[in-house]
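The step that takes the researchers longest sounds almost clerical: writing a folded protein down as plain text. Below is the pair of lines this work produces for a single protein:

——
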Amino acid sequence: MNKNAIIAIVLGVLVLIAAVQAWQLMDIKGKLSSGSASLTAPSAASPGVSGSPQLPSNLQNLPSMVGGC
């Protein structure tokens, strides 16, 4: 196959991917502006548990481990 043909095919695929992503962004923007979707982070705590989730024990001393001081 010709080198130019391969480059043209790859370029076409990249343009197609960019078009799909642009369409998805516009769809998300429309949903957010109409209020049918919201940006919320999933909660790490189980339902019914109040307060903030606790860090695992290996991450609780992380600030003291950084820098070695």
